[in-house]
Write a structure and sequence with these properties.
With 650 residues, the chain is mainly alpha-helical. The longest helix has 31 residues, at 101-131. Helix 22 (510-534) packs antiparallel against helix 23. The chain is globular, with a radius of gyration of 27 Å. It has three domains: 3-28 and 314-640, no CATH class; 54-93 and 95-131; 138-289, no CATH class. The chain has 27 helices and two strands. It is 59% helix and 1% strand.
């Protein structure tokens, strides 16, 4: 049977699962007075002594980000490095011993952030060194925007000459890569490391051959992305003057068009000749983008997945920033133990479904329970209300009435679904489901990957008490701490709720248990494949196959997951932060709640109201541990983890 026939057959199957599992939702009744909290409770709430300092830092940083908008220009690099270093100097002038506990927490958090910013600037310098031979012209181009921001009057003739020079440099660099192996190329004597290199003379029969710089796919892909960014910045610079300054347009219009075209062609050459993106993919993307920024590049959701691993030292630096005293290898071992538990539980669920230990068959059966096209929003709504009703029946966490009322629902575009194959959430829940223009295969992948039982375990992850409630509370309690946002708090907290509801019997059927365990296995796998990728031990293609084999992913969804992980829009530890942050909170709950020191509601409310930060600092705040100027004592949270709860264990 073909995939198309399979899709048509499955669409004819009545989607009975949702009617059996989820009660039909009715609009919530809102008591408008009760939705406003007693304001006396908000008066004299304890605050951080350092909150005004953090607020000032945030405002100053935002001002500089607006002012120095030529990202990675020489001026921007100097200013941001000086900014972070100067703030660390001023911070040390504060009398740490006079601060209250919340102020000490903020002091350490701010110093930790500033230190990491300097570390990342150093890392960026190393990366810039790797692309220098490919991009000898970027500083010159970026300086144009810096000069504009300095309010220096433009010299149109000089600007035209600068653009013409860069065009010759870019064309010469491109020619090095386009020449056949062993062939003579123009631009053989380009001073690749100098932004002021002059244009080469034409090749002659006696000139020695100069090969193209030898770089990895990773470095070439990074260089091509840098070119796209530079094009956008130079375009902003040009359109500021164009038409408003007749002399500027007279001089610069043609040189700008030529340099823009040269940059576009060079980025395409790097992607095609070094990265290995098929020409057809590049052409299709150019057509979609209308020849704009990134034309011919192949967007993040097309072509091969490359990524940019940060290596063992980069992981060590980032883990230190997250206050996690484990090596990547130790964290992978923790993830493997968690995966082993989930695998044993999913086999139990498969047996309860009459499928023996064949958990992959159970996954396949669950995937085929999807609702028909057009019905997914209703299903998401009903699952959200079911989760809220479950929380209403227990005294676990405060979900304000307004937080139940104000969330909204939107649909993800087909393009975004290529990198986000499952729904997303926060202020709104963003639904991933097939659209009419998708291929039949993509439709089927999306239908199966977003079935009711998979969704049952994650709608509350995105809404209440997950990401939506997090954002709601962050806007109302300690909002100055949003600058310390970390996936170990944001994603870790939502993942923690998945484990918490598993422990408390939220998943009543074996099919719902399979859905919950799919995600739990997935989050273990994220730690394993993402850390191994950054250690250079797993390629993106191997990560895709790993998800298919060990979690039961649809291949297209696995590709979207891996592409999302490594396309540069997420920090290196982001995907590991889900389960690791959840385990940290689980260990902290065991330390403070299972011991009787706090109730569930007090604990969960305190985590939310304290604001975003590494979980080790959450622990220091809630347990009132000593906070030193130099930071916290290492917390080996895995030593305090309670054993995972098997189905029916509570």
């Amino acid at each position: 049977m073909t995939r198309r026939s399979h899709l048509l057959l499955l669409l004819c199957i009545p989607a009975t699962a949702i009617g059996q599992q989820v009660p039909k939702a009715t609009p919530p009744t809102i008591d408008v007075l009760a939705a406003v909290p007693p304001l006396r409770d908000l008066v004299a709430r304890p605050t951080s002594d350092l909150a005004p300092v953090v607020e000032r830092y945030t405002a100053d940083q935002q001002s500089l980000a607006r002012r120095y908008d030529a990202n990675d220009s020489p001026a921007q690099r100097r200013r941001m490095r000086g900014f972070a270093a100067s703030w660390r100097t001023r911070l040390r002038e504060i009398d740490f011993e006079r601060l209250n506990q919340e102020g000490r927490a903020d002091y350490v958090l701010l110093d930790n952030l500033l230190k990491h910013q300097l570390t990342v600037l150093d890392r960026d310098d190393r990366k810039r060194g790797e692309t220098a031979s490919l991009l000898p012209f970027t500083d010159r181009l970026l300086s144009l925007q810096d000069t504009r921001r300095d309010l220096v009057a433009v010299d149109p003739a000089a600007a035209a000459r600068a653009l013409a020079l860069v065009t010759r440099q870019v064309d010469s660099m491109r020619a090095l890569f386009e020449a056949p192996n062993g062939g003579r190329t123009t631009g053989a004597n380009v001073a690749a490391g100098s932004a002021n290199a002059t244009a080469p003379a034409p090749d002659s029969a006696t000139r020695p051959r100069t090969p193209a710089p030898k770089v990895s796919r990773t470095v070439a892909n990074r260089a091509a992305e840098n070119i796209d960014q530079v094009r956008a910045i130079v375009g902003n610079w040009y359109h500021y003057y164009d038409g408003y300054d007749p002399q500027f347009t007279w001089w610069v219009k043609s040189p700008f068009a030529r340099v823009d075209s040269a940059l576009t062609r060079y980025a395409r050459t790097l992607r095609e000749r070094v990265v290995g993106i098929p020409p057809a993919t590049l052409t299709a993307n150019s057509a979609r983008s209308g020849g704009g920024v990134g034309a011919g590049a192949g967007p993040a959701n097309d072509g091969p997945i490359v990524g940019d691993p940060i290596g063992a030292e980069g992981l060590r630096e980032d883990l230190e920033h997250e206050m996690i005293p484990y090596t990547p290898q130790e964290l992978i071992a923790i993830a493997e133990r968690e995966y082993a538990f989930s695998l044993s539980e999913v086999k139990k669920a498969a047996r309860d479904m009459g499928l023996g230990d064949d958990w992959k068959a159970a996954m396949e059966k669950v995937k085929d329970t999807y609702v028909e096209p057009g019905k997914q929003p209703e299903m998401i709504r009903d699952l959200a209300r079911q989760a809220e009703a479950f929380f209403n029946a227990h005294d676990w966490v405060t979900i304000p009435l307004l937080a139940r009322e104000d969330w909204r629902m939107e649909m993800l575009s087909p393009e975004r679904q290529k990198v986000s194959p499952f729904f997303l959430g926060g202020e709104s829940i963003l639904v991933s489901y097939p659209t009419a223009d998708m291929t039949d295969e993509d439709k089927l992948m999306s239908l199966r990957g977003n079935n009711p039982h998979f969704s049952h375990a994650t709608v509350f992850h995105e809404l209440n008490p997950g990401h939506h409630l997090q954002g709601f509370m962050q806007a109302r309690y300690n909002p100055h701490r949003r600058i310390f946002s970390t996936p170990f708090w944001n994603e870790g907290q939502s993942l923690y709720w998945e484990m918490f509801l598993w422990d408390h019997g939220f998943h009543a059927t074996p099919e719902d248990r399979v859905g919950a365990l799919f995600w739990r296995m997935h989050r273990s796998a994220r730690i394993i494949f993402s850390l191994n990728f950054h250690l250079g031990k797993m390629t993106p293609d191997q990560a895709i196959q790993f998800l298919v084999d060990t979690v039961g992913f649809e291949r297209a969804n696995a590709e979207g997951e891996v592409r999302r992980s490594f396309n540069g829009s997420y920090s290196p530890l982001y995907q590991a932060g889900y389960m690791l942050g959840g385990l940290e909170l689980r260990a902290l709950h065991h330390e403070l709640v299972d011991s009787g020191k706090m109730t569930d509601r007090v604990f969960h409310d305190a985590v939310l109201e304290g604001g975003a930060m590494p979980i080790a600092m959450v622990r220091a705040r809630l347990a009132r541990l000593p906070i030193a100027r130099e930071g916290l004592a290492p917390w080996r949270f895995a030593d305090q983890l309670p054993p995972p709860v098997p189905w029916g264990g509570r």
